[in-house]
Design goal:
Helix content: 25-40%
Structural class: alpha+beta
Order of helices and strands: HEEEEEHEEEH
Largest sheet: 5 strands, antiparallel
Distance between the termini: 55 Å
Strand content: 25-35%
Number of strands: 8
Radius of gyration: 21 Å
Length: 144
């Protein structure tokens, strides 16, 4: 009796671990094509991942709305030189479509691509400055 209970529990734990392993797929942080409908659904493989970033900086941008200065923080970056052709070709294929920055399986920002971006430059913005700083610190850790 004790052997059958042990065997049953071992089998149950094995099935549980297999099922958990299959459902815990996490996307690598990076820039992915996203669909308009349903809103910002991640589609396809990443155009580039964070490990392809060569440079990032967090900056404050100030602009005027109704004669009042408004400041926002954003992350500016550029992909590594060896990834610029991939970035340029990918952004050209996505003209008129959205490209989203994915962090921890969530789309943080998803601008519509209007032109081929040959410089390899990008911006990540969010109204949540704490999230933006966390993303920035995470990117720094990943590109070391």
């Amino acid at each position: 009796m004790k052997k059958s209970i042990t065997l049953f529990l071992t089998l149950l734990i094995s099935v549980f671990l297999i099922l958990c392993g299959c459902s815990s797929h996490r996307r690598v942080d990076g820039w992915y094509p996203v669909a308009d409908h349903p809103d910002n659904l991640i589609i396809g493989k990443p155009l580039v991942t964070v490990k392809d970033f060569g440079y990032v900086a967090i900056v404050r941008d100030t602009f005027i709305i109704d004669n009042t200065p408004v400041s926002i923080f954003l992350i500016q970056g550029q992909v590594k030189p060896d990834k610029r052709q991939q970035w340029a070709d990918g952004t050209e294929q996505l003209i008129g479509k959205k490209l989203g920055f994915v962090y921890n399986d969530s789309v943080i920002t998803a601008p519509r691509i209007n032109i081929r971006i040959e410089s390899g430059s990008f911006q990540i913005n969010s109204p949540d400055t704490i999230l933006l700083k966390n993303i920035y610190n995470s990117i720094l850790q990943q590109i070391k």
